[in-house]
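Good day; I would like, with your permission, to put a structural problem before you. A protein sequence and the structure tokens that stand for its backbone fold form the material at issue. The record follows directly beneath this note:
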Amino acid sequence: MDNPWVLSLISWFLPGVGHLLQGRMRRGIIIGAAIWIMFIIAILSGGAYSPAFDFKDGQLLYLLNFFARLGNGLGALISFVLIASPPPNVAAWATFEYGGRFLEVAGLLNYLALIDTFDIAVGRKK
């Protein structure tokens, strides 16, 4: 696959796959594993239900939180579906705020992986 935009879109939606499609097996596995493991830990610790920031708390904080979570690609869809039906006692979990931060960091890390995929595809990086 030669189109850097398509590779970047694939890399965003499925973390690590963009590198795998470019023949960068080790890099793709490490990046994909890191992002998916962070995402799974975030979901298991209640990160999808973390209240984070509401729009009324501050538009900039809300948009930054949303942008970071959106970076997970397929994981973002999964977490947005989970938000629809939170468990009744999720606020009592000691880990759900940490999970929210893990979810955000996984998304931001995926953005960096997407940029790396694009740079390799256009020849700026080996």
